[in-house]
Amino acid sequence: MPEGISIFMFVVSGIMPFFMFRSIVTQIMNGTQANLALFAYKPVKPIHVFIARTLLEFCIYFVIFITVLFFAGWFFRFNVFPVHLLGVLFCIFLLMCSAFALGICFAIIWHFVESLRALLIYFSILVYWTSGIILPTWLTPRPLLDILYYNPLLHIFELLRFNFFENYPLQDEYSYFYAIFWILLVLFIGLFVYYYNRQALTAAKKE
Fold this sequence. Notes:
Number of strands: 0
Largest sheet: none
Helix content: 55-70%
Number of helices: 7
Shape: globular
Distance between the termini: 53 Å
């Protein structure tokens, strides 16, 4: 590990945001069927459930993240203070937005093709291994890293760690704008499809 970066802090700074990302996507997917009774009230729409679940999971995992950092700093004397706090918070915000956008798309797909739910497991594994969460990018072979560069989540996680650690070695020119572009694109697709299927999402599935 580079100087000033412990293995524990490297893992925590990737695992906790990833768990938040995965949980938001999962909770949004389950949101419509788990809250069908709420849709009896006309003011309540599926998008409200999506937003509520996103904010709830964000708050839960943010508190857990802060708690883990507190105990790591208090009891084990790790340096848990980010170098650029606003940059770290912005990256976490981008992860929340990307999970929200993907969650909407997956919720709609799963509603109409329930058998595709199993794909979420493989998607989570794919994100886990291609976003630099566990495997440091400086240990990744260059040909593979050039391919992974197109993954917008890799940009977010690398920029998060770059803002967290003082001597974090970025391997490429990672960009906020690239990640934001993909978030907006996926969000637009998700909201577009949601708009034309919002009534169907409130209907119970036929067994």
